[in-house]
Structure formats: C-alpha cells, structure tokens
C-alpha cells in the first residue's frame, strides 16, 4: 500500500497498520508512527472516507503541514519559535525556567505521560518533563512534527509512542494517563470546541491525575495590557484584522482564540482547577523592558521574583499560564 507525504507530496510505502473494529478502514503505521486521523485511513471496501473539517480547523492542519524547523541546542524546533520566544543569551535562565515550569505541577514518575499536541517536543526542558515515566505518548496532527519529536526524544533515549491524531478525538482509553500535558495548543482549537478538547484530556487521565494546559491569556492579561499600552492595542487590532483577512481570502493563517480565566472556572470539568504562571511576560514586553544592562536586569529580576513568590496571581495577571485541572 502507499500513502502521500503531507509536505513533499511524494508516495510513502508501508507494510504495517491497524484495522478498525468494523474491518472497513486501514490505518497505516510508518516509522513507528500510528496514523489515526480519519483522513489518513484507507478504505478497505472501496468507499471514500469523507471527513468534513471546518475552515478554522483546516487552516490549523495546513499551517503545521507547511511549517519548517530550525535547530536550537541540538533539538529541532518550529521555525516560528523566534516570534514568541526571546532567545537572547542573557535571558537563557529565565527562558529555560519557563520551559521547565509545567514540571513543577506534574508527577515526577509514572507509567504513561501523554503529551497532547506535542509538536516536535522542541526543547530539552520539554523532554525532561517525562523523564521518570515508562512511556511518553506524543499526539499531534502533523507527521513532520512527530518525526522531529522522534529524533529529539531519541537523543535522551526516552521511550515513546507517536500517534498522528486530533486532540478532539484522543485515541486512548479512559483512565490510562498518570499525567497529561498540553502546551501552547489549546488556543488554536476553535473557541466552541476548546471545552471538548479539555474533556478529552480529562477522560484519559487517571482519577486524581493532573492535566496541565499551558495557555496564552492574550488580551485577558492585565499585566500586559497595562505594561504595553499602545503596543498591546496594536496586537489586538492586528489579531482582529488577521482573523478577517484569513476568512475572507481563505488564507492558512494560524487560528487563535483565548478564553478568560473566568471561562475556565465556569466550565471546569474536573474536581479542582488552579492557575499558575508559566511565563508572565510576552516577547513584546521582553524586547521593550529586558536589556543586558543594570536597569534591564533589575526589571528581569523583579519579574522572576514576582513569579516565584506569587505564582497564582501572576498566572492570572500575566500572559502565559499553566491551567492545572485535577480529575
């Protein structure tokens, strides 16, 4: 059998796969990656598999099919990472601490660590989050992202299971994960479906196990609204204009929608929900206020101190939060 590569368009030949219960659809396995998206299945009856996808969902698929990769500290990362992360050397400690922050709220060991919308598991700190687990299960829409994840995880010798699937339909059993992580992805799900994705993550978590979601509050961040003023207003207007541009001209601009902390509290499907800071400032704040001089370093130290002393408050007021839900 053969299948078409999502980026190059060339045929991919494979010999292994899975068959669904009705024995009507074959799902291929290639390079130890399981293809479980509906559109990746191959009909065994000759009938076409028609999977209707909304425009907002389709442009998410398209964006991550087309994105390229750069190298950082020996790891493969998305080429658009520099749009969101300040890689200046004097900020390395602050940046690295943010990358590792989800680990503060997840167990150190267990059987299954599920990384939802894992991408390439880009940074070394991301890899270490599942160091004490028997197996890391990476789930993502993109074959290319999972291929990069396989390379990145192989560097540390981490045992992994790679699945090409949608977070709205996680192909995992109920109560099987000791930890569930979703970083910088939920806000790319259409706003009316984000709660469905959260329910899927809660479903697969063991009772009492944590689900950690790294989320961007965007215009709900009072700290950024006040500190950036007109720059934040520009970001909001550009976002609105970009949303209409994508819809009118059918462009593959990445979908984004940020709910508020109040929305998460109101729709919490777990027993308990908390908000902690992941990184309280965005790259615009960083470029304006953080500089390799006395004043810039003092501002950086102040932000780091506030995040350490008041993680809950900064998690609500700042830009990026860890939404921690216990089943």
Describe the overall structure.
- The N terminus is likely disordered.
- A hairpin with a 2-residue loop joins strand 4 and strand 5.
- The chain contains eleven helices and 15 strands.
- With 327 residues, it is an alpha/beta fold.
- Helix 6 packs across helix 7 and helix 10 packs across helix 11.
- The strands form three sheets. Strands 3, 4, 5, 6, 9, 10, 11, 12, 13, 14 and 15 form an eleven-stranded mixed β-sheet that branches. Strands 1-2 form a two-stranded antiparallel sheet. Strands 7-8 form a two-stranded antiparallel sheet.
- Overall tally of domains: 2
CATH class of the largest domain: Alpha Beta
User: Which residues form runs of ≥5 with pLDDT under 50?
Assistant: 1-9
Q: Give the full name of the CATH homologous superfamily of the largest domain.
A: Vaccinia Virus protein VP39
Cα distance spanning the termini = 42 Å
């Amino acid at each position: 059998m053969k299948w078409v590569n999502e980026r190059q368009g060339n045929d991919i030949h494979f010999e292994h796969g899975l068959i669904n219960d009705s024995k009507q659809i074959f799902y291929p396995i290639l390079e130890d990656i399981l293809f479980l998206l509906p559109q990746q299945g191959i009909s065994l009856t000759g009938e076409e598999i028609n999977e209707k996808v909304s425009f907002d969902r389709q442009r998410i698929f398209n964006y991550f099919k087309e994105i390229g990769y750069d190298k950082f500290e020996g790891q493969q990362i998305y080429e658009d990472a520099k749009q969101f992360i300040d890689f200046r050397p004097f900020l390395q400690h602050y940046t690295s601490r943010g990358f590792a922050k989800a680990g503060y709220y997840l167990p150190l060991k267990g059987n299954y660590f599920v990384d939802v919308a894992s991408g390439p598991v880009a940074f070394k700190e991301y890899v270490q989050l599942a160091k004490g687990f028997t197996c890391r299960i990476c789930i993502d829409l993109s074959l290319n992202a999972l291929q990069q994840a396989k390379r990145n995880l192989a560097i540390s010798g981490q045992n992994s299971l790679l699945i090409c699937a949608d977070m709205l339909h996680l192909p995992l059993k109920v109560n099987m994960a000791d930890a569930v992580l979703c970083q910088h992805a939920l806000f790319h799900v259409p706003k009316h479906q984000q709660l469905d994705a959260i329910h899927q993550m809660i479903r697969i978590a063991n009772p009492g196990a944590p689900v950690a979601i790294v989320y961007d509050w965007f215009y709900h961040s009072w700290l950024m609204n006040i500190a950036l003023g007109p720059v934040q207003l520009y970001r909001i207007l550009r976002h609105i204009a970009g949303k209409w541009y994508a819809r009118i001209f059918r462009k593959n601009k990445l979908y984004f929608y940020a709910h508020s902390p109040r929305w998460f509290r109101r729709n919490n499907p777990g027993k308990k929900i908390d908000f902690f800071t992941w990184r309280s400032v965005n790259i615009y704040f960083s470029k304006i206020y953080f500089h390799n001089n006395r004043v810039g370093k003092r501002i950086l130290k102040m932000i780091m101190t506030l995040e350490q002393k008041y993680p809950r408050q900064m998690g609500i007021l700042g830009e990026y939060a860890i939404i921690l839900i216990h089943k």
